[in-house]
Amino acid sequence: MFLEAVLKSNPALIDAAYKLYKDGDIGPNTYCVDLSMIKRNASLIAREGKEYGIELYFMTKQFGRNPVISQAIVESGIEKAVAVDMDEARVLHRNGIKIGHMGHLVQIAKRDIKEALDMRPEVITCFSAEKAAEINEVAAEMGLIQDILLRVIDNGDYIYPGQEGGIRLECLEETVDSISKLGNVRIVGVTSFPCFLYSEDSRAIEPTTNVYTIKRAAEILRGMGIEVKQINGPSATCVSSIPILKKMGMTHGEPGHALTGTTPLHARGDEPEGQAIVYITEVSHRDRDRAYVFGGGFYPRSRMKKAYSPRLKTTFDVEEIPAESIDYYGTVIDDEGLLKIGDTLIYAFRTQVFVTRAKVAVIDGIREGRPRLVGIFTSLGDEIR
Q: Are 205 and 247 in contact (CB under 8 A)?
């Protein structure tokens, strides 16, 4: 999906990844991340957020919860992260990254609430009064007051399968009444997901129905005397969408794919953020007109179309791995038999590194013309070397 964009906007990343591969510094099934481009992208997003008064929490799951990349983002102006689950929060906290937002998309299990509160998150999202009560109980024992967001949903909202749940708009007042009786949690705002998505028709990022739901929810809270500090509108937060967030009344956004230049909007390669991630592997074997590469890092929703051969300086069509299959290998169509066993292939597609079995190689200095390997990590943020 992003291969042409990388070849257009950041061919130096492909060159650096290929050289490291040829030198034996990295192996197959590895995501290569351009740290210099990450810094540039984060700086652009941070500057746009500041100009429009939109506060930002950055996401890390897309690039494997990587602590080196996360620290670079902090240094570039986005100071706090959003942890979508406790495992991500642990990696970030262990590496000194401040947590801005927890509990969304994944609620905090009761047994983990004390550990979560010890990390001092700015806000925790609650899907129910019961979860707020669990947090309140632990916060009372710790002698603190925890700010919370309410995830509010309504009929007709766009929710991904497996991500359902939240407080129904028609039940919001009743839920707020219940939570307001608790002494150690404080409602400060609302959120949902996804609030903004790329439209193939308009070729732009547009608000979903969820935005209108949480705007109505914010008005209900204000009518009940609650100071609304956050209307958090995550999904597709980038330089081009931040003005739209502002226009729609959002106060917070959560850039993730924009940091690597891999929202659908970035596929043309003409957005302010450049592509900062590629996937590298090699041909394992052949069968007739197909070459099979080592897998482990392919993602079912990648929408990948092509792979690039640095040796041949050409691209090949590929077949996506069906969601019901394990990606032991990736399939490359090679009618002319040009690819040899051991050949390197490079992909660029939309991914979620944390759900793969891939490794992550962080490369710095590419934009300066002096690439160097900073380190190799697991897909969950642990350093290998």
A: no
pLDDT digits (tens, 9 = 90+) for 237-274: 999 999 999 999 999 999 999 999 999 999 988 999 99
CA distance 248 to 346: 39
Adjacent-strand bridge partners of 102: 83, 124
- Bridge partners of 332? 291, 318
φ, ψ (nearest 5 deg) of residue 213: -65, -50
What is the C-alpha to C-alpha distance for residues 231 and 150, in angstroms, rounded to an integer?
10
Identify the burial level of 89 via C-beta atoms within 10 angstroms of its C-beta, where 0-12 means exposed, 13-18 middle and 19 or more buried. Answer: buried
Per-residue pLDDT tens digits for 319-356: 988 888 999 999 999 999 999 999 999 999 999 999 99
Minimal CA–CA distance to 148: which of 176, 109, 112, 174?
Answer: 176
Q: How far apart are CA 325 and CA 342, in angstroms?
A: 24
> What's domain 79-254's superfamily in CATH?
Alanine racemase (3.20.20.10)
Every domain of the chain with CATH number 3.20.20.10 lies at 79-254
Q: Which helix (H) or strand (E) holds 93?
A: helix 86-94
Q: Which residues contact residue 19 at a Cβ distance below 8 angstroms, ignoring those fewer than 6 apart?
A: 371
Element (H, E) at 178: helix 172-180
List the one residue out of 230, 269, 64 whose CA is nearest residue 150: 230
Q: What is the pLDDT of residues 294-327, one digit of tens each?
A: 999 999 888 899 999 999 999 999 998 888 899 9
Cβ contacts of residue 123 below 8 Å, gap of 6+?
100, 101, 102, 147, 148, 149, 188, 189, 230, 232
Task: Give start-end residues of each CATH 2.40.37.30 domain in the chain.
Answer: 3-34+271-378
CA 94 to chain centre: 19
User: What is the architecture of the domain spanning 3-34+271-378?
Assistant: Beta Barrel (2.40)
Angle of helix 35-52 relative to helix 67-75, nearest 10 degrees? Answer: 40
